[in-house]
């Protein structure tokens, strides 16, 4: 069994790791003093991401920030890890204690593009 990364866990939530989009892995996302850990419910799967390795967190926000679906972790090794979390806003608040605000970025939603009017006319320049 792998040793835990964190000595103190401050927040735990149910989550799905979207490593493979066809077969998401369900488990627990734990935010602690040394990083973020994901433990799979069934099987030996685990992911450990120390705070120093996280370069950016892209937050998936919908409806002007009223609903947060999940987030992507970008690491210094070029990895992109997606998690869909039950209590995403609360987990982001817990991560905010350990990371500066500049590391959190709102991701552009594809859902917003669906509701744009394709027949809307732009303003014409007057000459």
Helix content: 10-25%
Rounded to the nearest angstrom, the distance between the terminal CA atoms is 72 Å
Give the overall average pLDDT.
82
Structural class: mainly beta
What is the succession of H and E elements?
EEEEEEEHEH
Number of helices: 2
Which descriptor suits the 3D outline? globular
Q: Strand fraction band?
A: 35-45%
Number of DSSP strand runs: 8
- Sketch the major β-sheet: 8 strands, mixed
Rg, nearest Å = 18 Å
- The largest beta-sheet arranges its strands as 4-3-2-1-7-6-5-8
Protein name: DUF956 domain-containing protein
Organism: Aerococcus viridans (strain ATCC 11563 / DSM 20340 / CCUG 4311 / JCM 20461 / NBRC 12219 / NCTC 8251 / M1)
Pfam family, one: DUF956
InterPro entries: DUF956
Describe this entry's structure for a reader:
The structure is a single chain. The chain is mainly β and 127 residues long. Helices cover 11% and strands 44% of the residues. An 8-stranded mixed sheet has the order 4-3-2-1-7-6-5-8. The protein starts with 8 loop residues before the first strand and ends in a 13-residue tail after the last helix.
Which helices and strands, and how do they pair?
Layout: E1 9-17, E2 25-32, E3 35-40, E4 46-50, E5 54-62, E6 67-75, E7 80-85, H1 88-96, E8 104-107, H2 110-114
């Amino acid at each position: 069994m792998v040793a835990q990364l964190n000595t103190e866990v401050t927040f735990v939530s149910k989550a799905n790791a979207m490593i493979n989009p066809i077969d998401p892995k369900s488990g627990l996302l734990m935010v602690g003093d040394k990083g973020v850990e994901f433990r799979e419910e069934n099987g030996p799967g685990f992911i450990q991401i120390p705070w120093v390795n996280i370069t950016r967190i892209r937050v998936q926000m919908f409806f002007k920030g009223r609903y947060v679906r999940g987030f992507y972790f970008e690491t210094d090794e070029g990895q992109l890890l997606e998690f869909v979390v039950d209590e995403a806003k609360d987990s982001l608040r817990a991560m905010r204690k350990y990371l500066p605000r500049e590391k959190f970025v709102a991701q552009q939603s594809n859902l917003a593009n669906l509701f744009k009017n394709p027949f809307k006319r732009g303003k014409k320049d007057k000459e």
